[in-house]
Amino acid sequence: MVVIPALNEQETISKVVQDVSSLGFNVLVVDDGSSDLTANRARSSGAQILELSMNLGVGGALQSGFSYAVHHNFEAVVQIDADGQHPANEIFNLIDRANATDADVVLGSRFLMDTFEMKVSRTRKFAMWILKLVASRACKTRISDSSSGFRLIRMPLLGHFSKLFPSHYLGDTFEALVICGRRNYKVVEIPASFSDRKHGQSSASSKVAVLLIFRALFVTTFGLHFQLPEKVASRAD
Amino acid sequence: MSNRAIFAIEVAIVALAFAVHVARLSKKRLLSFKYTIGWMSVCLFGIFASPLVFLITPLAKWLRLTPTALLIAMSTISVAVILIQLSVSISGNQRKMETLVRENALLRESLGISMKDKQSDHSK
Predict the structure, then answer these.
(1) Which of A59, A185, B64, B110 is least enclosed by beta carbons within 10 angstroms?
(2) How far apart are the C-alpha atoms of A145 and B19, rounded to whole Å?
(3) Quick one: pLDDT at residue A148?
(4) Which of B101, B111, B118 to mutate to test the interface with A (most CBs of A within 10 A)?
């Protein structure tokens, strides 16, 4: 199943839902307290909808989606953004890689594509570089895009995330990755295309993002993040 | 009447006034039972401990502090403890609220109820 957390994305949500549905996937849009027509447009495009009565943040919306997936016995969930920045057909790449590597998390990385260049300040670039180092060390593999919103998560990790998942900025991406790595869940990365946002706004401004990146580093350095059960045995064992 | 006795009476009066205010808030249901009991306990402590203010000076001397510094330190620690307890309480309530919002959304989805439909029903 494909989970799309959405906040005020009425301009793009219909196309994203149609693109994903046309590939034969079940689509769940989690409307994170939008004040526009996001939920209505997603519903009329054929998606299942979870409407949160107040904004819980991306992590809170995702946790709702994970709960839905677990209740409906889905084995894995693919998360994509509602702004249309991820091409839907690349979902197959995530699934293929998950099956080939038996990974618990497969990340779609913008930075593994030669064509992608992120226009951000030097400070933010430096902070993101530190995030990459910390995430790579925790996951024991090279992580180039620790804040990617394009990823696949499968059971049993999906079940754990449905019960406990951070909702603050970078908690659902970077911190979740770090804790996965530290609890021996397998994380792998594949290249993923990424197009520029045409509508709406990004979740954090540059200055705020830098501060939040340092908060995330503080949290992971001192182990203040949420806890996951240790991975018991891999499916390959 | 000595200065210490006057100070003890002042502390007791302030604690009593505080207790009356807490009781009023509780009657108006602005304070839950749990917090009413907590604050009432603080007030009762203030009333009954007020005759013990004469202990402040020797205690301060023993701790090598001035009486004023000792009182400020005690007040700061008390306020910090109360703030931490309230932060824990607020965090718990926030978690419960987030769970409620998620479960509400899941329940509405399983019942096929749209929030927008419900809002328009109310407005009719």
Answers:
(1) B64
(2) 57
(3) 84
(4) B101
| Three-state DSSP class for residue A141 | coil
Q: Partners of B80 in the beta sheet?
A: none
Quick one: which of A43, A29, A64 has its CA closest to B104?
A: A64
Looking at beta carbons, which residues of chain B come within 8 Å of A56?
98, 101-102
pTM exceeds 0.90, yes or no: no
User: Looking at CA atoms only, how far is residue B117 from chain A in angstroms?
Assistant: 10
Cβ contacts of A232 within 8 Å, gap of 6 or more: none
Asked whether the predicted pLDDT for residue A237 surpasses 50, the reply is: no
Say what the pLDDT of residue A222 is: 73
CB contact under 8 A, A56 and B101: yes
DSSP character string of A114-137: TT------HHHHHHHHHHHHHHHH
Structural domains in chain A, sorted by start: 2-221 (3.90.550.10)
Residue spans per domain, chain B? 1-64, 67-124
**ipTM for the predicted complex:** 0.74
Whole-angstrom distance, CA of residue B37 vs CA of residue B23: 10
Contact between B116 and A40 using a beta-carbon 8 Å cutoff: yes
Please choose, from the candidates B15, B41, B39, B36, the residue with its C-alpha nearest in 3D space to the C-alpha of residue B26.
B36
**Do residues A213 and A123 touch, judged by C-beta distance below 8 A?**
no
Contacts of B101 in chain A (CB under 8 A): 52-54, 56, 60
Cross-chain Cβ contact A68/B104 below 8 Å: no
Of A40, A43, A54, Cβ closest to residue B101: A54
